[in-house]
Structure formats: C-alpha cells, structure tokens
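Lecture 7 notes: from sequence to structure.

We start with a single chain of 108 residues. Read the sequence below before looking at the structure.
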Amino acid sequence: MASLMPCQDLPWQKGYSENEPSTAPEALGISKEWPGAANFDKVQMILDQNRLLIKEINQNHCARRTEGLSRNVLLIRELHSNVAKVVELYREISESFVVVFGNHQVQR
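Now the structure, written as tokens:
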C-alpha cells in the first residue's frame, strides 16, 4: 500500500500561493443577489482554515513529539467537523441553485 511521505510538502501545498486567482463568487461571475452566493464565501473560509489545519497536522506528525501528536487528535476532530460543514454548505448551495434556476427552461 502506497503511503504519503509524512515529512514532505503535500503535492497540493507545493504550488500554493496567497496570490492565486480569486474564487470569490463575484470573480466567478456569480451574482451576490443569489441567496446561495454567501455560502461560497463561507466554504472558502473553511477550506482556507482546513489548509492550515492539515499543514499543522503534517508538521506535528513529522516532529513526532508527544504533545504534537496528542494535539493532532484535536486538530483532526476540527478538520472532520469542518468537512461536515462544507458538505452542508454545498447541499444548501445546491438546493438554492435548484430553487432559483431550476424553473428556468432553455429556450431554443
């Protein structure tokens, strides 16, 4: 079974930059007037927080200190909770999208 090298940057971390193009709803052409648009901001905030949590978890794992490994239990619980929140927000986005745009039919 292949495993991730614990003390190296994860593949998605290597090229990450704070200056990446915006994924804010307005940058993607999504109207702020749509009720589901606010959830995109919430999702992005949680994903940014998860990136930091994963980085700290990886650092603690690499250091192999008792206190860091014990802290990982709490960090992983927080990460799990955040993932559940993202799933719920995406469900709300999907439902809102169907309500707002589901009634519009394509005209030919």
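Residues 34-100 form one domain. Keep this in mind for problem set 3.
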